[in-house]
């Protein structure tokens, strides 16, 4: 079974600084996908960024980028120029294939990011 | 608006009762997933439906059941509710744009 590890339960960062949220994964599959989601205090899960295992370039979406190191099995999220609105819970997830074409997302425990003014 | 609609947003009910959570997937998405988020267990996969058929089961209790209808909306039925069932229940759909989550239903069992 696949596993996602987020080792930082909480992080505190000054506004406008860059922040890196760690994520390591464990899988024996050659083809896989990695996702980052943001969950603000209101509760919804907001998709941020996706990285495929065969993607040669690191994924970027605006202020979000994914530092994908395949050999180390890490997929860290980098947020540049942090804003107060970035304060939220962040989840790393991996798509796990199941039988007969089914699949599911496996989530890490999350990192609570707090941006200080 | 993510395109995935979940109702109701909040639900408070007593132990032993039965509730139904509803999800309408993003337009064009055939797959629907249900997840439970609790403080102690994190985000747990419950069940997946694809075009009306059950595709995969995760950590879903026997007291829970789900179905997906011909119009692709899905319902999660929770019965004989216990205090420990209090959680945020998410529905997600997948398609061309990956996984999209609804805003969740917060269930409180008292």
Q: How would you portray this structure in words?
A:
The complex is a heterodimer of chains A (117) and B (110). With 117 residues, chain A is mainly beta. Chain A is built from no helices and twelve strands. In chain A, a hairpin with a 4-residue loop joins strand 8 and strand 9. Chain B has strands at 5-7, 10-13, 19-24, 31-38, 42-50, 53-57, 64-68, 74-78, 87-95, 98-101, 105-109. In chain B, 42% of the residues are buried. Helix content of chain B is 0%, strand content 57%. The interface between A and B is medium-sized, with 25 and 23 residues.
What is this structure's SSE topology?
The complex is a heterodimer of chains A (117) and B (110).
Chain A lengths: L2 E3 L4 E5 L4 E3 L2 E3 L6 E7 L6 E7 L7 E2 L2 E6 L4 E6 L8 E10 L5 E5 L3 E6 L1
Parallel strand pairs in A: 2-12
Antiparallel strand pairs in A: 1-4, 3-9, 5-6, 5-10, 7-8, 8-9, 10-11, 10-12
Chain B lengths: L4 E3 L2 E4 L5 E6 L6 E8 L3 E9 L2 E5 L6 E5 L5 E5 L8 E9 L2 E4 L3 E5 L1
Parallel strand pairs in B: 2-11
Antiparallel strand pairs in B: 1-3, 3-8, 4-5, 4-9, 5-6, 7-8, 9-10, 9-11
From the structure above, extract its key features.
heterodimer; A: 117 residues; mainly beta; 6-stranded mixed beta sheet; 0% helix; B: 110 residues; 7-stranded mixed beta sheet; 11 strands
């Amino acid at each position: 079974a696949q596993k996602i590890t987020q080792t930082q339960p909480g992080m505190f960062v000054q506004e406008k600084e860059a922040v890196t949220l760690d994520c390591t994964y464990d899988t024996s599959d050659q083809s896989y996908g990695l996702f980052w989601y943001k969950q603000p205090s209101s509760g919804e899960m907001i998709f941020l960024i996706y990285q495929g295992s065969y993607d040669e370039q690191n994924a970027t979406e605006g202020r979000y980028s994914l530092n994908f190191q395949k050999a180390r099995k890490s997929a860290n999220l980098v947020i540049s120029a942090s804003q107060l609105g970035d304060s939220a819970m962040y989840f790393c997830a991996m798509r796990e294939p199941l039988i007969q074409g089914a699949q599911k997302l496996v989530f890490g425990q999350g990192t609570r990011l707090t941006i200080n003014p | 608006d993510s395109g995935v609609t979940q109702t109701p947003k909040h639900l408070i009910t007593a132990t032993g009762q039965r509730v139904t959570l509803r999800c309408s997937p993003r337009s064009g998405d055939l797959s629907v997933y249900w997840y439970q988020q609790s403080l102690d267990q994190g985000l747990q996969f419950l069940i997946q439906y694809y075009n009306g058929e059950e595709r995969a089961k995760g950590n879903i209790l026997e007291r829970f059941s789900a179905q997906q209808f011909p119009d692709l909306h899905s319902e999660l039925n929770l019965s004989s509710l216990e205090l420990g069932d209090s959680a945020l229940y998410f529905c997600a759909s997948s398609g061309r744009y990956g996984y999209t989550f609804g805003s969740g239903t917060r269930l409180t069992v008292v």
